[in-house]
Design a protein that fits this description.
It is built from 17 helices and 15 strands. The chain is α/β, with parallel strands linked by helices and 454 residues long. Bound molecules: flavin-adenine dinucleotide (FAD) and iron/sulfur cluster.
Length: 454
């Protein structure tokens, strides 16, 4: 009861119970729901909103769980304005339903009060190893466990969640929420082997020898892209993903906060203007940097990050300088600034033109946020898995998600490139079905005394 009272008041950024019900009651429960069409995993949005409108939180949560293993995460970090909320019919009157906040409220209530305890299905024969515990791995693990398979998740990190735990900052996605979602998946019977790197010492072949019938690789884009410019090796230059990870490790008490590369009073310049750059900038502000500036070589109107994220960063004091292309990171013993070429903008319909003019932005810390790519640790330590030129795993359509090596599946960012949480989940849901088909066929053949071949 104590918990329920806390939720009726709930946290300021989320809905209270009263607000959630009032918002849900506004939904028209459309016959052709555009919100659902806008959702990559086709969540039954009108149905869970209707249940919420009647105060049936358990029913609402059960409806969500049919499509999603991570609703409290999606309710917070999905780009709703581009998906369900952006597609809501009521936007025509500027009164779109706040689907994300309703989903978040339902998921948080269920997470805290356990309105829908996990039902562990009767076990099927078939063991699956999942490498990587990001949204893709967690989705595959949750879906296969719900089908009755035995699933073990391996992750190199000390806590599960992938980018949810070590990338997206605490102020946007509290780590208690991620832990709660992981616990729900654990309650389905999924085992977690953390602090366990796959490749080169423990390989896919070793996992098959241990008795796994199929393996899913959901290792994401672990490597930050480097900037091919002079000066990037200077002390004071860091990768955004490394910085964000160090902040989380310091929050967990695993490292001394002094080891986090950005400190009180720093003048920080960030190269890149996607969502990772914005997260790094807003985190640097919270570490009390004296100034935080994002430089972008494109037009202001072409900033890659979500408009809502950019607006919040500006409100917090982050400066944006567009039409500057970095040429060199300068400094003798330590970085002291970024030399930039000024780009001329002759108008929206014309091409941008680099000029001869350069300018220096002073900085004692430079954060690089120009994207990530997959690591080759697993691919390099096993045979038969093909990747494209950029290192992304090649997969087949039948069974969905299987790599060129029989029994090894892959999905999420390591196949499709950097995307979003819900897109990794969408792909992973299809791969989970592909794995189930494969393992069922394999088990049937084993019963008949036959072996699977390529
Ligand atoms: C800073 C940042 C902010 C973002 N913000 C958002 C957002 O607000 N909304 C949104 O929708 N998307 C966001 N994204 C994108 C989103 O997080 C990713 O698209 C998503 O996490 C990809 O999921 P994944 O499961 O494929 O990989 P990841 O989440 O990258 O998970 C991969 C996991 O594999 C593990 N791993 C890797 N190699 C090995 C190995 N050899 N052995 C064992 N384990 C291994 C890693 O430790 C990691 O836990 C953001 C990304 C970043 C970097
Ligand atoms: S489109 Fe909007 S009003 Fe219609 S069902 Fe979806 S959320 Fe409700």
């Amino acid at each position: 009861m104590e918990n329920l009272e806390r939720f009726i008041e709930y946290d300021p950024a989320g809905f209270t119970l009263r607000e959630a019900i009032i918002e849900a009651k506004r939904c028209l429960h459309c016959a052709k729901p555009h919100c659902r069409m806008g959702c990559p995993i086709e969540n039954e949005i009108p149905d869970f909103i209707e249940a919420m409108a009647h105060g049936n939180l358990g029913t609402a949560s059960t409806i969500i769980a049919k499509r999603s293993n991570l609703p409290a995460v999606c309710g917070r970090v999905c780009p709703h304005e581009k998906q369900c909320e952006g597609s809501c019919i009521l936007n025509k009157q500027n009164k779109g339903i706040k689907v994300g906040k309703i989903e978040r409220f339902i998921a948080d209530m269920d997470g805290e009060l356990v309105l829908t305890p996990a039902v562990i299905k009767e076990k099927k024969s078939g063991q699956i190893a999942v490498i990587g515990s990001g949204p893709a791995g967690l989705t595959v693990a949750g879906d296969l466990a719900k089908m009755g398979f035995s699933v073990t998740v391996f992750d190199a990190q000390q806590e599960a969640g992938g980018v949810l735990m070590y990338g997206i900052p605490e102020f946007r996605l509290p780590k208690q929420v991620v832990r709660r979602e992981v616990k729900k998946i654990e309650n389905l019977g999924v085992k977690f082997r953390l602090n366990t790197m796959i490749g080169p010492n423990l390989t896919l072949d070793n996992l098959f020898e241990q008795g796994f019938d199929a393996i899913f690789i959901g290792t994401g884009n672990a490597l930050a892209k480097s900037l091919p410019l002079p000066g990037t090796k200077l002390p004071g230059v860091v990768q955004a993903t490394y910085f964000l990870q160090m902040v989380e490790l310091a929050n967990q008490g695993s490292i001394d906060p002094i080891e986090v590369p950005i400190h009180n009073g720093d003048n920080v310049v960030i190269i890149g203007a996607g969502n990772t750059a914005i997260d790094a900038a807003r985190t640097a502000v919270r570490r009390e940097a004296a100034s935080v500036t994002i430089i972008n070589r494109d037009r202001e109107s072409h900033i890659a990050a979500l408009a809502s994220e950019v607006a919040m960063a500006r409100e917090e004091g982050v400066k944006f300088i567009s039409l500057r292309s970095p040429v060199e990171l300068i400094g003798e013993y330590f970085v002291t600034g970024v030399l930039c070429r000024v780009i001329d903008d002759p108008g929206e319909t014309k091409e941008l033109m680099p000029t001869d003019k350069t300018t220096i932005l002073p900085a004692n810390k430079v954060i690089i946020a120009i994207g990530q790519r997959p690591a080759s640790r697993i691919i390099g330590s096993t045979k038969g898995i093909e990747v494209d030129k950029a290192g992304y795993v090649k997969t087949r359509d039948i069974p969905y998600g299987m790599s060129m090596r029989s029994g090894v599946f892959s999905g999420g960012d390591v196949v499709n490139g950097p995307a979003t949480v819900v897109k990794a989940m969408k792909d992973a849901k299809l791969v989970a079905k592909g794995i189930a088909q494969y393992v069922e066929a394999k088990k049937l053949m084993e019963k008949c005394g036959l072996k699977m071949t390529d």
